[in-house]
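User: I'm preparing a small set of examples for a lab meeting where we compare how different chains pack in three dimensions. I only have the primary sequence for this one, and I'd like the structure in token form so I can line it up with the others. Please keep the answer compact; I'll paste it straight into my notes.
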Amino acid sequence: MSTAGESDVARPGGRARPLTVSQLVRGASRTLERTIGTIWVEGETASVSRPSSGHIYFNLRDGRSTIKAVMWRSDARKLKFAMADGLHLRCRGRLGVYEQSGIFQIYVQIAEPAGLGADALALEQLREKLAAEGLFDPARKRPLPPLPRRIGVVTSKSGAAVRDVIRAVQRRFPVPILVADAQVQGTQAPPEILRALDEIARTDVDVVIVGRGGGSKLDLSAFNDERVVRAVAGFPVPVISAVGHEVDVSLTDLAADVRAATPTMAGEMAVPVRADLAAALAKEARRLDREMALVLRDARRGVQQLADAMESRARQPLSRGHAALSELARRLERLHPRAQIATHRATLGELEARGAAAARRALDGRGRALASLSGRLQAMSPLRVLERGYAVATAGDHVVTNAAEVAPGDAVEVRLARGSLDCRVEAAHPGQDARPDPRSGNDG
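Assistant: Understood. Below is the structure token output for the 444-residue chain.
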């Protein structure tokens, strides 16, 4: 079978042999391949479609024209970014005509961004995807614990970052640090970081620092890996990201609860300054002292009011006795017999003595009760308890009443009658009936 050529051209006085439609389409396609071959073309993508076959169908257009484009699955797998509408691409391929429909199109073998690089475009697409899911939303970020019991660090043990974190923590407020070693650059870095995060998640830490020292954008690429970013966003405790320097912002930085420009800054964010914390505790102790003084003043005022009330009650029987005597005197004055007067005078004397004795007994009883209440009140004062040699131990913001609430190495403040002691637990000896305090999170 021949294609359009010399034999098919109409001769003088003759008629050309007609071509079939498929011959025409096939001939046009071969002519395009021979005359133009493989070319580069630049344009904007539109009507992108990627069916289950894995092939990509789209249009390339500029301000005046549009051409159909096809990228077979074997070539589409090599793309570093997601094909989408509105991308400005440079495409390399060959021209042809689709035989079944006769449509002129380009079969694309290579596609790359015309401006932004493929890696940068892929990173931007991933950032937009994760932001749309809410992974970078400030509302989901958690506050750091004010004083962590243990800090986890995911980085390379041989790098400078881990040393910077340790020095910063030891300088401000030494707490235990658990380091999970992981590669932080190269193709194996993402799975290594995921493994280290999983190890840290199964330990008892209150905050985690993830990162490395500075480096090129390629060196930091592991912290733009989608798996790593999702693991950081979903970690069970707050995460501080310390990846690179101030000018380098990774997707892990955006997903973490707090971002630090350097590992040193991350260590400083994780713990408070010991001196600042001591000053805050001293201020709180002074506030408690003032409140206790107010409570004692109110208690003394209450005791005084109780004493006054008791004294007033004691006077009432005596007043009633005087009133009765006055009434008897009036009756005697009316009767006036001398004998009765003498008798009544004797009776009056006896009543006066009995009334006075009863009044004295009532006052003495009320006085003893008042003294007993005052003594009991003074005995209940926390300061009197401390003066007898007892002490109050606090760990953090709560009073320690059970040895099971603390563990060896915990910091404890011991309040005495005069002053306080900063102590560290060497050993804890819970009683046989001791139960762990659920507030402490300590297993005993």
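A couple of notes for your slides: The longest helix spans residues 274-335. DSSP finds eleven helices and 14 strands in the chain.

User: Perfect, thanks.
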